[in-house]
């Protein structure tokens, strides 16, 4: 029995076989560099190419079933790239002309083809470089003897996914039915990967470091995502202990279900709104089932990731409209695409940044790419005719950004009105308060915004200078830090003075131990992962606003961590 310790970021437990993702890269490197038998190498490449296409076809089907058609597109593109005549002729040339072994010929051909795509200067082509590199790695993995698919296996048995790291896009693609849990060497509690795991209700442990070894692939293991432990070959006692924790957890969740239909009123009579955060239609559904008061944060950027073309106005309109209608008049706050940093959209091209979290992300990117911004705003405006829709802008630091975004919105409203397209003329326009600059100047911003939504995840990372994706900064990244709490209080006070609502939509809103303090500071709305709506309803109902929060506890671990 071996115990590997990490951070539990999405509570739950699982027992099953480990599937280690990303093994193919190593096995691909194990093949020889040159060859004396080019014909044999060409045959090996041809067979591996065919196997890769079959794997990709299967992944396309899986992705379509679990995350929708658009998410499946990248696997379609990869199939086309594997069979691309230029790519194949390059591989042939490398094998026959330069005496390379198949795997090296593939890698070199992919590099050359990738450069060619980049030189076109066309975003649609250059964004395919990543797909090309993935496809090449897949072929190399097969050539290196990894005949099996290294992605999420198709076998009907679900498994525990282990990996060095998972990107937010990869996490969004996980098939919930086949993923018992995931465990990664890297990652942190406030990364988008962890946030998605909580939304999808997949038990997850991150930040195990190097003790998570590929050799555990195929081993039976137990995941204790209450205390952050992965146990390889667990004994009966460990299984019993984890099962007991799971039983208690499920019992608590069951008890919370009795709160469905109950009001969010504090012990001293204050009414609070509890909404949910969502990234897709499934999250909206879960939010409705958990009796959320609406969607306080729709992370629209996930519609832009891991796909072959940008989502058009019609596609976005349908998604927003369906969500608005599903909520039957309850609020739907659509955040304009907060792309950049770890939420990568290859289709946007642009320069590689040294510090993407401090780079062109959120509103900065949208104001640069007004073509994309305008398409999204038109879709949001059109959807506003079908429900209680608001729009908000991410990563604002200055008033001019808000003014410029609003002026684009105004222009689009005029266009729609001229075209007699229905929309809500008074659609509320809010901003995320997630940079220190926005919090500190919230009195000024409040004059131009209809509401605030405090993004404590980014606010914490920027205030505490602690990269939210860096697993080595555990303990440095607490939203309970005095500095963050003071800025929340300051922002809420400014919102109150201007008479606008103030929501908290970062993960801190789901920290039941500070619920009373957040309300006391003026947060009338909390937006939390769908699975936490009832937990926070319970915390609200027990909250006594007259009691003050004890700042000495600021580094105490979060509810979802232990
Ligand atoms: C935040 O920063 O707190 C937030 C809600 O936005 P995201 O986590 O998507 O960056
Ligand atoms: Mg943010």
Question: What does this molecule look like?
Answer:
This protein is an alpha/beta fold and 562 residues long. The protein has 3 domains: 2-24 and 151-236, 3-Layer(bba) Sandwich (Glucose Oxidase, domain 1), CATH 3.50.30.10; 38-143, PtsI, HPr-binding domain (Enzyme I, Chain A, domain 2), CATH 1.10.274.10; 265-542, Alpha-Beta Barrel (TIM Barrel). Helix content is 45%, strand content 14%. It has 21 helices and 16 strands. An 8-stranded mixed sheet has the order 1-8-7-3-4-5-6-2, with helices on one face. α11 (281-289) links the parallel β9 (273-278) and β10. α2 (38-67) runs antiparallel to α4 (85-97), α4 crosses α5 and α14 packs across α15 (399-418). It is globular, with a radius of gyration of 25 Å. Residues 24-31 and 557-562 have low confidence and may be disordered. It binds phosphoenolpyruvate (PEP) and magnesium ion. Residues 195, 297, 299, 338, 434, 455-458, 505-506 line the site of phosphoenolpyruvate. Magnesium ion binds at residues 434, 455, 457-458.
């Amino acid at each position: 029995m071996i115990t590997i310790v990490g951070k539990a970021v999405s509570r739950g437990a699982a027992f099953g076989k480990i599937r280690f993702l990303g093994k193919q890269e190593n096995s691909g490197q194990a093949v020889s560099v040159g060859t004396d038998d080019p014909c044999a190498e060409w045959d090996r490449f041809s067979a591996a190419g065919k196997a890769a296409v079959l794997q990709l076809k299967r992944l396309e089907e899986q992705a379509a079933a679990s995350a929708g058609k658009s998410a499946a597109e990248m696997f379609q593109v990869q199939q086309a790239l594997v069979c691309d005549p230029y790519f194949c002729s390059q591989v042939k040339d490398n094998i026959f002309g330069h005496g390379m072994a198949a795997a090296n010929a593939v890698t070199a051909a992919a590099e050359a083809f990738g450069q060619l795509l980049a030189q076109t200067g066309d975003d649609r082509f250059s964004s395919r470089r990543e797909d090309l590199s993935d496809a090449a790695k897949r072929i190399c993995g097969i050539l290196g003897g990894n005949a099996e698919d290294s992605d999420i296996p198709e076998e009907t048995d679900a498994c525990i996914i282990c990996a060095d790291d998972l990107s937010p896009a990869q996490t969004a693609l996980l098939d919930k039915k086949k993923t018992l849990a995931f465990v990664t060497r890297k990652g942190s509690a406030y990364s988008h990967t962890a946030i998605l795991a909580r939304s999808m209700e997949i038990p997850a442990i991150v930040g195990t470091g190097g003790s998570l070894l590929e050799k555990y692939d195929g081993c039976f293991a137990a995941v204790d995502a209450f205390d952050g432990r992965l146990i390889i070959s667990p004994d009966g006692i460990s299984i019993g202990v984890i099962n007991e924790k799971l039983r208690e957890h499920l019992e608590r969740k069951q008890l919370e279900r009795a709160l469905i239909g109950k009001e969010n009123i504090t012990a001293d009579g204050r009414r609070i709104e509890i909404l949910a955060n969502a990234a897709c239609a499934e999250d909206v559904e879960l939010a409705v089932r958990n009796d959320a008061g609406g969607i306080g944060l729709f992370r629209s950027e996930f519609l832009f990731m891991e796909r072959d073309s940008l989502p058009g106005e019609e596609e976005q309109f349908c998604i927003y409209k369906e969500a608005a209608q599903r909520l039957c008049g309850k609020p739907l706050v659509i955040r304009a695409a907060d792309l950049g940093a770890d939420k990568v959209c290859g289709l946007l091209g642009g320069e590689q940044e040294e510090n993407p979290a401090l780079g062109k992300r959120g509103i900065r990117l949208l104001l640069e790419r007004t073509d994309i911004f305008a398409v999204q705003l038109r879709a949001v405006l059109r959807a506003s005719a079908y429900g209680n829709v608001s729009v908000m802008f991410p990563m604002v630091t200055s008033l001019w950004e808000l003014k410029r975004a609003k002026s684009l919105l105004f222009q689009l409203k005029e266009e729609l009105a001229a075209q007699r397209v229905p929309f809500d003329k008074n659609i509320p326009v809010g901003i995320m308060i997630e940079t220190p600059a926005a919090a500190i100047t919230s009195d000024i911003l409040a004059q131009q915004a209809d509401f605030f939504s405090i993004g404590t995840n980014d606010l914490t990372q920027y205030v505490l200078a602690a990269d939210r994706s860096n697993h080595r900064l555990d303990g440095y990244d607490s939203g309970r830090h005095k500095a963050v709490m003071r800025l929340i209080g300051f922002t809420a006070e400014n919102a109150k003075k201007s008479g606008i609502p103030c929501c908290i939509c970062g993960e801190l809103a789901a920290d039941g131990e500070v619920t009373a303090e957040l309300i006391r500071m003026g947060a009338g709305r909390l937006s939390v992962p769908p699975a936490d709506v009832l937990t926070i309803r319970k915390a609200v109902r027990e909250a006594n606003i007259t009691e003050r929060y004890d700042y000495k506890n600021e580094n105490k671990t979060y509810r979802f961590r232990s």
